[in-house]
Write a structure and sequence with these properties.
It is built from 7 helices and 16 strands. By secondary structure, it is α+β, with helices and mostly antiparallel strands.
Length: about 325
């Protein structure tokens, strides 16, 4: 009979049913079709225990093939010559679903990994115009921009989730326990790093200043080194790689905003996070591309008119809202 204990309970054990499903997903990932990836993301987000189980299975998969494995005889082919058939074959033997010996191996390996303490999550929210710096116990520093939502765990400083907004991470590297940042169904794992992440709707931006990170850790992971950037859209399952000047990464912390062909909507969204101001772009202005670096003065009443002049548009105020529009023929 399948176990019923789950991650997040007092003993921190993952149910066997969830482990079985996590193993199945892990084995399929090397050749999954696009619709299967979408199904996987839905499963991963449906329950925190799913993500925890998948992370454990992936970690065991990295560790176990390096250790001597006692493969049950009935799983060895009749024509086996006892040579090493490679990591992938041994992995499938180990995770095979058909046997007490294999099930027992999984149980023995998972039980010692049960969380010594239950997860103790907490959330940090910053209002637009507000900033906050979080120093974690392991030495990692997170600088959170305005209009952001970050989830952390008091009992595990090596995981975080950015649901909205922007943050710069200076990670204390621990090779044995890498720092993992999740955002929606996507994840970034540090390899000793200073990097910036911004989340807006279905879009995730990652830029690396120092060290390197791995986007979507696993067989298909993408390693980003200093000066590299990535834009991922969860809704279209698209990823675009690019370049960025390392010294501009996380520039919002010092009031420097850099853009390369970005729509004005994103430019003013960044200003909204910094100042907490509401800016309305009329017509198709929000889609107009902008390239350049803008030095913020710290005062919205100076910077928004300056930005309007820079892009050649008119501005006016309606209460607390700034309204930008293309210049009329009479004012050109």
């Amino acid at each position: 009979m399948k176990g019923t204990r789950k991650v997040g309970s007092d003993d921190g054990i993952i149910s066997e049913a969830i482990v079985d499903r996590a193993i199945d997903w892990h084995l399929r990932q090397s050749d999954m079709a696009e619709d299967a990836w979408a199904e996987f993301v839905v499963w991963l987000e449906a329950d925190a225990a799913h993500a925890e189980a998948y992370d454990r299975v992936a970690m065991l998969d990295r560790v176990l093939p390096e250790a001597p494995l006692a493969v049950p005889n009935r799983l060895i082919a009749a024509n086996d010559d006892h040579q090493d058939h490679g990591r992938a074959t041994r992995r499938r033997w180990l995770w095979g679903a058909g046997g007490t010996a294999v099930a027992a191996a999984i149980a023995v390996l998972l039980v010692p990994m049960a969380l010594p303490r239950a997860a103790d999550p907490y959330e940090i929210n910053t209002a637009p115009g507000q900033r906050q710096t979080i120093a974690l116990a392991d030495g990692t520093r997170i600088e959170l921009s305005g209009g952001s939502r970050l989830k952390l765990d008091h009992n595990n400083t090596r995981v975080a989730a950015l649901d909205a907004g922007e943050a710069t991470f200076t990670v204390h590297h621990d090779e044995g326990t890498p720092f993992t940042l999740r955002s929606g169904g996507l994840s970034v794992q540090d390899l000793g790093t200073v990097f910036n992440v911004a989340r807006s709707g279905q879009r995730l931006d990652v830029q690396v200043a120092e060290g390197s990170v791995m986007f979507q850790p696993g067989a298909e992971g993408i390693v980003l080194k200093p000066g590299k950037s990535l834009v991922a859209h969860e809704d279209t399952h698209s990823v675009t790689l690019g370049d960025v000047a390392p010294d501009t990464v996380g520039g919002w912390r010092s009031g420097r905003l850099s853009f390369s062909g970005e729509p004005l909507a994103r430019v003013f969204d960044a200003m909204r996070r910094l100042y907490g101001t509401q800016v309305t772009l009329t017509g198709d202005l929000s889609e107009q591309p902008f390239t350049g670096m803008v030095e913020m003065t710290g005062t919205a009443a100076r910077d928004i008119p300056h930005m309007a002049a820079l892009i050649g548009v008119e501005w006016r105020r309606n209460g607390e809202t700034w309204i930008l529009s293309r210049r009329s023929a009479a004012t050109r």
